[in-house]
Each structure stands twice: as structure tokens, then as C-alpha cells.
Design goal:
The complex is a heterodimer of chains A (110) and B (113). By secondary structure, chain A is mainly beta. In chain B, strand 5 and strand 6 form a beta hairpin. With 113 residues, chain B is mainly beta. In chain B, the strands form two sheets. In chain B, strands 2, 4, 5, 6, 9, 10 and 11 form a seven-stranded mixed beta sheet that branches. Chain B has a four-stranded antiparallel beta sheet with strand order 1-3-8-7, with no helix packed on it. Helix content of chain B is 0%, strand content 50%. The N and C termini of chain B lie far apart (38 Å). The chains are: A mainly beta (110), B mainly beta (113). At the A-B interface, strand 6 and strand 10 of A face strand 5 of B.
């Protein structure tokens, strides 16, 4: 069964510091992972996807198949990055759903 | 391009009652999925609708049911509400491309008392 684990429920960093949000996955196949973000009082939205290899709002994520990880990183955190972040696996095989981790609440302190 | 809209935004129901939540999908999307997000948890998949039929279901009892209409909008119905059904219910629309992103609505906050 596919599963996503985000070990940190809460993460606080100071503005300008590097930030890394951890995500580990269990997946039967070649995964194409997503990161979703939910800012306060806003809807869940796609931040980036592995397949596109984009950098969005300064965030990047590298897929490490050996460690089965897809950690989200940003070298210099900004206060506006404070939000809830979810790592997610896309549908695979007969499954139809996105599989989400439990999320990490990032707070960037001034 | 219109996004995903959900109604109502908030709802309070009594245990044992029935509730219907509504979702309009994004233009160009033919698939609608429903998720339940309990406080402090990630979204959990309820089911998906494609071509007006249920196309996959998560670990939810039959009292959770749905519909999809020809215009791709959808309803989520929950019968015999229980206190644990209190959650944010999210609708997401997409195409059938597995690698395509999902567009989420703002959700309906259901409180069962």
C-alpha cells in the first residue's frame, strides 16, 4: 500500500534561515510526488511536482529513491512561507486518490 | 477559467441527520474527488466520480454516497451523521491524467453536534 510520512507536525525557523520539510514515501512503482500548500484561510493548492522539476517560490524538492524521500527545501525562509505543507503521492494502479501525509505546519518567525 | 467552488462553506447538523454538500468542478475537468480532512490530519480520500459514476472509493462506509451530474458538478451525501463526521470536506477536480494536478475547493466545514 502506498503511504506518505511527514515526521514533523510543527516546524519553526527564523526568517532568512534554511528550511527543510521532510517527506518519506512507500510506493510500488516509480513515484511522481507532489507538494501541496495551504496558507491560512486559503484553499489547498499545488506547490510543486517532482515531474516538472520546477522551483516555485524558491522551494525545490529532490526525489531520493534510495532513501524514499522527497524533502522540500528553501535556502532562505520568508514570513509569507508560513503555512501547512502536505506531501502527496498521485494515483497508481487501480487507485484513484491522492495519498496525503499528515502535514507539517511551518512557522517562519521574524 | 473558473476554479472549484463548494457550498455551503459552513454547516452545523445534529447527530443522525443527513447532509448534502455541493461542488462545481473547474472548467475543463471531468473528474471530481471528495476528501475528508479531520482537524490536524491530512485529507483522506472518500471517493471519486468520473462520467457520472463512482470510479474509486476509500475506506468510508456506505452512508457516504455521491453523485456527479452531466456538467461534472458533484454532490456528497452523508446519512445518519455521527459526531466523528465533523471535519472539513474538500472537493477536488482534475482530468483522468494521473500526473495532472488536482484543483481543490475551499471546503465545507461540517460540525455535527
Amino acid at each position: 500500500a502506498q503511504r506518505v510520512t511527514q515526521p514533523e507536525k510543527l516546524l519553526s525557523v527564523f526568517k532568512g534561515a534554511p528550511v527543510e520539510l521532510k517527506c518519506n514515501y512507500s510506493y510500488s512503482g516509480s513515484p511522481e510526488l507532489f507538494w501541496y500548500v495551504q496558507y491560512s484561510r486559503q484553499r489547498l493548492q499545488l506547490l510543486l511536482r517532482h515531474i516538472s522539476r520546477e522551483s516555485i517560490k524558491g522551494f525545490t524538492a529532490d526525489l531520493n529513491k534510495g532513501e524514499t524521500s522527497f524533502h522540500l527545501k528553501k535556502p532562505f525562509a520568508q514570513e509569507e512561507d508560513s503555512a501547512m505543507y502536505y506531501c502527496a503521492l498521485p494515483p497508481w494502479g487501480s487507485a484513484r486518490q491522492l495519498t496525503f501525509g499528515s502535514g507539517t505546519q511551518l512557522t517562519v518567525l521574524p | 477559467e473558473t476554479g472549484v467552488t463548494q457550498s455551503p462553506t459552513h454547516l452545523i447538523k445534529t447527530r443522525g441527520q443527513q447532509v448534502t454538500l455541493r461542488c462545481s468542478s473547474q472548467s475543463g475537468h471531468n473528474t471530481v474527488s471528495w476528501y475528508q480532512q479531520a482537524l490536524g490530519q491530512g485529507p483522506q480520500f472518500i471517493f471519486q466520480y468520473y462520467r457520472e459514476e463512482e470510479n474509486g472509493r476509500g475506506n468510508f462506509p456506505p452512508r457516504f454516497s455521491g453523485l456527479q451530474f452531466p456538467n461534472y458538478s458533484s454532490e456528497l451525501n452523508v446519512n445518519a451523521l455521527e459526531l466523528d463526521d465533523s471535519a472539513l470536506y474538500l472537493c477536488a477536480s482534475s482530468t483522468m491524467d494521473r500526473e495532472a494536478g488536482y484543483t481543490f475547493g475551499s471546503g465545507t466545514r461540517l460540525t455535527v453536534v
